[in-house]
Amino acid sequence: xxxxxxxxxxxxxxxxxxxxxxxxxxxxxxxxxxxxxxxxxxxxxxxxxxxxxxxxxxxxxxxxxxxxxxxxxxxxxxxxxxxxxxxxxxxxxxxxxxxxxxxxxxxxxxxxxxxxxxxxxxxxxxxxxxxxxxxxxxxxxxxxxxxxxxxxxxxxxxxxxxxxxxxxxxxxxxxxxxxxxxxxxxxxxxxxxxxxxxxxxxxxxxxxxxxxxxxxxxxxxxxxxxxxxxxxxxxxxxxxxxxxxxxxxxxxxxxxxxxxxxxxxxxxxxxxxxxxxxxxxxxxxxxxxxxxxxxxxxxxxxxxxxxxxxxxxxxxxxxxxxxxxxxxxxxxxxxxxxxx
Length: 340
Known about the structure:
By secondary structure, the protein is of the alpha+beta class. The protein has 11 helices and 12 strands.
């Protein structure tokens, strides 16, 4: 079904506030979900909202905190997320990093005990849009099988990069899996089959059944190269954040266990001037002008399609799975109480 952006935002805010989330925190969390929907990333959008409420109710998410911070030296911020909402804790850490990087040049945050971050590119866009460079990583439950293996042992472990450019920054947001588990859940909600190369079922066999894939393992993108990248990210983030490894990670796909994955943000302030940003912009335009291959309309830079989709959905509405919207409207009525 199609819903307007305003209706979706109103519903998300009503639900979060009804679950005890303060206004500012609710605005941050809802904005993340709505930006994902606008950019064609429903796997990181409204389908995750009900789980946020369940986690608050079960005492494994604290909607009030922004996390606790301790600087280890001038440039490394150690963050205990205190089970806070993922984007709330993340943006509080980024506010410290962006300020510190103006004097140190580089500032990093290693974050533990924080909930799901959602769309990593959102943070990259925020930092790069203000003229600084961003590199971010996060880990997840073991959802990806090693190259040549049949069992999930690695997280999808996204990496995001943001570089200032005009009229908007370059944002690269990719994960070590062919897809996110959220995308597989979205296909399952819609009753649609998944491509055969996306996942294995619980017995380690290739499947096109999205429901079966939920209990199986996602394939690494790029085969052995994606597997190696995911393994490197898992080791890097986990050892610095003091988080859990592999199959010990929990909390981004369930409703009753504390989230023990790790996040790592790096903000670089090199004093980029207008001339440097113009060079980046010119290079991106050169890439877009590359002659397209057979069957390709035009060459795109990462983010181009998402921004086009965003404009269309702001105008025409958000396509939300009937099951997801129905569940959220029922949840909103429940949270509003019998007098609503």
